[in-house]
């Protein structure tokens, strides 16, 4: 009976993980595409097609660097089948609600909050890897600030260059498209673990495959879900972030997108090289931070839609406690039912 229940939960968990990848694509397709759409370089449909291609490449080639952190870094013990199901279910519920409302929340906050909620019930505070969690939280604060600064400085530097050199507008259009591709690749590297990281240990044990191979297969699995979600529901969130924060020209859009891509990629790669764990930052916060930085450089504070920024910030703050609560409650309830 126990084996049958665990098998059922495993199947349901993988289905929920795929749905989480779907939600990831639906909610975070805006992250690499918002500036190109905002600046008029691409239509929403064109941007999503490029997002789909380069996100898959990033996930498959380097997604394991951050996936490992979520699957094995946040809690000191292993994530079991029931826990993995509770984690992805909790994240799904919150992300779907926010996506339906058109709010770009942090999927990273959602999955980390869910893992923490599970870890508290399963292992207690002592079972959490507090040093890794501390690094993740610090990155959540520093990444949007870094993106704001880089985008602001980059756009101001471009303005100085354009005073002395006449640059064809089409060049900025293509630079913006290239930076979108880099940003989507970085997104795939950093965010694919959000959808599938909870199943790293389980895939190794059940599938009897090596660590890297398990993460590679999970990256392909998650990529399919991300692409599906991006194509179906992505436009709804893109409209909120691309049009309602501030308006950008092509040069400002390029500055913002390149800033976002650099921040996401460097936070993924440098910590992995130094400590063996890529940091799952909020690509949503980095993206919005980059747009704010470029908007400030172009038009000052008056150019920003403060109400939209406040609404987005409120949902970002709510995400961590809400997903932790849902995950902890789900795991506790299932454990009680199986006794």
Blueprint (SSEs and pairs):
Layout: H1 2-28, H2 30-38, H3 44-62, H4 64-72, H5 81-100, H6 107-122, H7 130-164, H8 169-196, H9 200-207, H10 211-232, H11 234-244, H12 250-275, H13 283-299, H14 306-338
Helix pairs in contact: 1-5, 1-8, 1-10, 1-11, 2-3, 2-8, 2-11, 2-12, 2-13, 3-8, 3-10, 4-8, 5-6, 5-14, 6-14, 7-12, 7-13, 8-10, 8-12, 9-10, 12-13
Number of strands: 0
Share of helix, binned: over 70%
Which structural category do the helix and sheet elements fall into? mainly alpha
User: Globular, elongated, flat, extended or rod-shaped: what is the shape?
Assistant: elongated
Poorly predicted runs: none
Q: Give the count of structural domains.
A: 1
Q: Give me the Rg, rounded.
A: 20 Å
Mean pLDDT: 82
Strand content: under 5%
SSE sequence, one letter per element:
HHHHHHHHHHHHHH
Alpha carbon gap, first and last residue: 12 Å
Per DSSP, the total helix count is 14
Biggest sheet statistics: none
